[in-house]
Amino acid sequence: MTAQIDYFYTHLSPWAYLGHQEFLRIADKYNVTVTFRPVNLAVLFPLTGGLPLGKRHPARQKYRFIELQRWAEKRGVSMNYKPAHFPTDIALADSIAIRLQEQGGPVGTYSQKVFEAVWQKDLNAADENVLTAILNELGLDADNLIATGKSDEMLEAYTVNSRMAETANAVGSPTYLLNSEPFWGQDRLDLLEDALKSGRGPYQSLE
Fold first, then answer.
1. Under a CB-based contact definition with an 8 Å cutoff, are residues 31 and 202 in contact?
2. pLDDT at residue 207, rounded to an integer
3. How, if at all, do strands 4-9 and 33-38 pair?
4. Alpha-carbon distance 36 to 5, whole Å?
5. Mean pLDDT of all residues in the chain?
6. 20: Cβ contacts below 8 Å, ≥ 6 apart
7. CA-to-CA distance for 166 and 168, rounded, in angstroms?
């Protein structure tokens, strides 16, 4: 039976960017069906006890930069650690991914290009011109997807994903949910691959 993973993430997450290509590689290797579920961290964090970056202790903020450098080197990924447009309003970019998921479109490739816009190219992913260029490059109907991404329907789906993440104990981005077992953080991808390789049942909380 084909494995299925719910992929909770946002394009504003550097950790999701660092793990995106490796996750897609693993999913392809094990013939995994991926449901891409962009989440709004402004909704998810208050539900799960997380804090926005600017409200974290300075020691945590400094350590974050060290870890980003370690993992960028580990993954072989080019990265701007202080992008010009961070934070930015990522809701439209995330919502377009939700729409592409619904349509069966190239959401994985689209997300990679949005990640690169933010974390490599110093582009503002809240800028409709930036998103239009990405969508056009993929041969997609940019005008329609942008209009749909702004709709109340997509914004509601964005919130639903975030609340679904809370229910699944997905406390941040990225979280990969396999058989109800959350793997939080791209640094858990080796463990995710081990679980897929073994076919074991899901571990459950003892609480």
1. no
2. 74
3. parallel
4. 9
5. 94
6. 9, 108, 111, 112, 115, 174, 186
7. 5
